[in-house]
Amino acid sequence: MEYEIGPEESVSTAVVRAVSAVEGREPCFLRPLADVVDPTALDSLFDPRYGGTPRTGGRLSFIYNNCCITIDNGEYLTLQLLEDRFSDERDQEHSDSRVR
């Protein structure tokens, strides 16, 4: 799943909303994001620099609630369920072994 982070939305809020949508559960029933990463620090990584200059580049990935989360430039979030990710990796390894 890809999620575009809104201009007034914090990165930490976007993570919780995206995971909630994928898992079909209300955010209050998810494991607290703070158990995995400091939400304030996460937001700070992608906040504009002093004087309002936007930060460019940057990518962060981490695991939260059985999902692999990747944040690009503080604008986009990609979410993949761990079971899907491992299945994709196994399929790739299997196809690589057939090519050799």
From TrEMBL:
InterPro entries, per database record: HalOD1
Domain Halobacterial output positions: 8-75
Protein name from the UniProt record: Halobacterial output domain-containing protein
Organism: Halapricum hydrolyticum
